[in-house]
Amino acid sequence: MGESHAHHEKPGLLASWFSVDHKVIGIQYAVTALLFLFFGFTLMMLMRWQLAFPGEALPFGGLLGDSRMPGGIMLPEFYNQLGAMHGTIMVFLGVVPLAVGGFGNFVVPLQIGAPDMAFPRLNMMSYHLYFWGGVVMLSSFFVPGGSAQSGWTSYPPLSNIAGSGQTWWVFGMLFLIMSSLLGAINFIVTIVQLRAPGMTFWRLPFFVWAQFVTSFLLLLAFPAMQAAGVMQLMDRLAGTSFFMPEGLIVSGQAIANTGGGSPILWQHLFWFLAHPEVYVLILPALGIVGEVVANNTRKPLYGYKALVYSVLFVGFMSFIVWAHHMFITGMGTMMSAFFQTTTMIISIPSVVILTCLLLSLWGASIRFNTAMMFALAFIPMFGIGGLTGLPLGLASSDIHLHDTYYVIGHFHYVVAPGTIFALFAGVYYWYPKATGRYLSEKLGRIHFWPSLIFINGIFFPMLIQGLHGVQRRLFDGGQIYAHAQEVLHLNKVMSFSAWGLAIAQIPFIINFFMSLKGGAKAPDNAWQATTLEWLAPSPPPHGNFATVPTVYHGPYEYSVPGMEEDFLPQYVAGNVSSEA
Amino acid sequence: MSTTVIPYTTEIRPDTGVNNVKLGIWLFLASEIMLFGSLFAGYILLRTGNPEFGAGSGALSVPMATLNTVVLITSSVTMVLAWAAAMEQNFAKFRLYMGCTVMAGAVFLVVKGFEYSAKFEHHLYPSHSTFMAIYFTFTGLHALHVIVGMGYNAYLWIPGSKMFHSNPQQFANRVEASGLFWHFVDLVWIFLFPILYLLPDAAS
């Protein structure tokens, strides 16, 4: 320690595992998160079997054991476990670690011209807390009674009286919360303190701004869940009644507790985290799309300042909209009026962001590479997700739509073809920086088009089912309800689309591993881009830059008039008229 | 193992006016405020929503809590003196005041331990009532913070104090960060004392 000479030999496996280099940690995060994404997706594919063919035996399903699928027929308890764990894994172990831990870690220090994160060892600790939180979550499948099964929202009293898997869930969450808090502190300090000379706040790439606001959301929203988690642990292990009402009767048995608690308290604390969490899912995705769009339209991002102000405003507003998840708790019209007003207000900056991205395309000679295809698909997909959210934000229409498949369709449009498509765009865009080689464009197209079609095949029918009043979390997909009969056939459409989507990921997996050795070699500035990460060698060595870069202008100086090349990197001095 | 030199870990960045450690600890305290703030929100909601909330609150010992309040405030003063000594490069004074701070933390925990065991003797467990639940959760979480703060102070006091001579500026920064955390733990107690011990039963 203490010396700063760079070694270039390959470090051992153990040394990589305990690496303090932000790029290694970023890749660790990304790979772990991708594995969790595929695992969470697998859970959902099992659920889709039950929904398409209720009560029928899944071939080889019996291998999962008699406590889960005896003879291949799914038990309702197992269905509930799959539902709860699918949500938890996708949000807390998949998307957030990939968007923030993976891309944030890898890209942010490079884009601001820093040698590493501000606290490298803390960064390593964040990853390890995340990893062990994931292990705890996965282990819960093997405890008696199985994993958590009260939904990813874990509403009490149901979650309080659930089996021991729920305790594991809370412990897993506490690990993940600690990991996120340490990570958030690290990001904010890095962005504020380690910007290279000349890198003023108004010269930060949009992706860095998005990560900056995201970090504040993690920092200030997660502690509410931490408090709620501690209280739920007390309820479950010490017999307290924070969330337990008086005189609760379950299956004809009175529950022995003092009562006097409030199940609604959990909902408030949970959603105080979980609504900003929605923006934690979406802001880094918007950041990635901004980078990819600017690079592939070869012109400055439209309304850079409007984008930044919008992101800041969204971040602030996201703290005062949480109770729009709770319109049917009987919280009264005054409260409903307040929260539906704030919800309508927060949609304005979201539309500004989307409009800026859309207007950036105007008059551009667009490069249609795979990264750009995913980024372009993101815009309408996120648009559908956002617009379908408006009826849910208004109390009167939400009463009809609450807890139906419409809600599921809405937030999956935001997160799946929205955020996850943006994350794919990020993988295609920054892969050459991380490995020195391009991903195959041909396999990229084979990945993109079927993914786009199948993902809409999954989520659009959900909106239709929801409008017919089909409830979410039904073990049989609504078979026993008269009002669901008209739209039951859509269950098969969605299930086959889900399995098709899984097959569509095969070219991506092949591409990801084959290109490590066989991909076309990429130069350091693989996309003729302007931001600082492209100055560093690909892959960048420990410490990133040979000399500290100096920044001369804003992040998106593309097609500057009078220049020979159509891009002017931030690290190259030059005359720019549109100086911020 | 090669390491990269991270700028502004010790020295202040001119345009932001802080070093990394100081900004980091303030951000951490912001999240801690949200954690205890959420518990306070829970306290308010449960107290106003339940007429029998206060059952058992009369059993708490105000004299013991008063003693602990005095002990914690004193430790905050010695903490500042320890930091000042580190800034002045006076090692003997630093050792003395840091020792006092660590000892005060220990006294606080011992008194708290007596309080807890007195409650258990009267069969007042967290499951007794909502008040007892919130009392044990709040004070238990606070005690955990006292243990962490005390642990780090103890590290700076004896084994970590080698840095006092090798890198005085960085060492003083560490004492300052630890002090900020310690003052925060103290401040939380200043809020806990009245709402748990001094407020009368909601029912009365």
What's the CATH superfamily of chain B, by name? Cytochrome c oxidase, subunit III, four-helix bundle
Distance from N terminus to C terminus of chain A (CA atoms, Å) equals 41 Å
Order of neighbouring strands in the sheet with most strands of chain A: 1-2
So how many helices of chain A?
A: 17
CATH class of chain A: Mainly Alpha
Main sheet summary of chain B: none
Query: How far apart lie the N and C ends of chain B?
Result: 66 Å
According to DSSP, the number of beta strands of chain A is 2
Unreliable spans of chain A are 1-8
Task: List the quaternary state of the chains.
Answer: heterodimer
Of all protein chain pairs, which has the greatest interface, and how many residues does each chain bring to it? A-B, 53 and 47 residues
Secondary-structure element series of chain A? HHHHHHHEEHHHHHHHHHH
Rg of Cα set of chain B: 20 Å
Mean pLDDT across residues of chain B: 92
CATH topology descriptor of chain A:
Cytochrome C Oxidase, Chain A
- What proportion of the residues of chain A is helical, as a percent range? 55-70%
Q: In CATH terms, what is the fold-level topology of chain B?
A: Four Helix Bundle (Hemerythrin (Met), subunit A)
Order of helices and strands of chain B: HHHHHH
Number of domains of chain B: 1
Tell me about the biggest sheet of chain A? 2 strands, antiparallel
